[in-house]
Amino acid sequence: MNIAKDTVVQFHYTLTDEQGEQLESSKNGDPVAYLHGHKNMIVGVEKALDGKATGDEFSATVSPEEGYGERQEEAIQRVPVKHLQGAKVWKPGMVATVHTEQGERQVTVVKAGRFMVTVDINHPLAGKTLTFDISVESVREATKEEIEHGHAHGVGGHQH
Q1: CATH 2.40.10.330 region(s) of the chain?
Q2: Would the pTM count as exceeding 0.90?
Q3: Which of 45, 78, 104, 105 maximizes the CB count within 10 A of its CB?
Q4: What values do phi and psi take at 71, rounded to 5?
């Protein structure tokens, strides 16, 4: 079966930056699972996976526009320390999670004070051209429930 809208895809990946430095990999854990065609994956990766099948291995280079977006230099905000999740003590360069009206968001600490923290709200990978080395582990038709919920269920996907 080929990857198309309303299929659940499981894949492993290794992510590298423009210098070839490995940023992350799923190879030592469960594969990533997502519902194809429902905006659950960055655009460049979803486009690269479209039409592929179980066993396919390939590399996809993703521009910032189809990845995590361009960096916006004005995307700096001051927030109360109590809104940051992920550590007890914050230092510049650390990545935190903040709950927003649009859901959870990763931010990077620029300057930390006792009560307020200056954060960069750009995604940590914004503005970067990224290469994903991908191996497709499985492709299956999505269940009616997965399509209704808008995401994959099970290992690597959403757990209800």
Answers
A1: 76-120
A2: no
A3: 45
A4: -70, 140
- Contact assessment for residue 64 and residue 127, using Cβ atoms and an 8 Å cutoff: yes
Q: Give the pLDDT confidence of 105-158 residue by residue, as tens digits.
A: 889 999 999 999 999 999 889 999 999 999 999 999 999 999 999 999 987 666
Contact predicate 147/137, CB 8 Å: no
What six digits make up the tokens of 54? Answer: 């179980």
Q: What totals of helices (H) and strands (E) does the chain contain, helices first?
A: 2, 9
Residues 6+ apart with CB under 8 A from 82: none
Q: Can you give the length of the chain in residues?
A: 160
Region(s) of the chain under CATH 3.10.50.40: 7-68+126-149
Quickly count: other Cβ atoms within 10 Å of residue 68's Cβ: 19
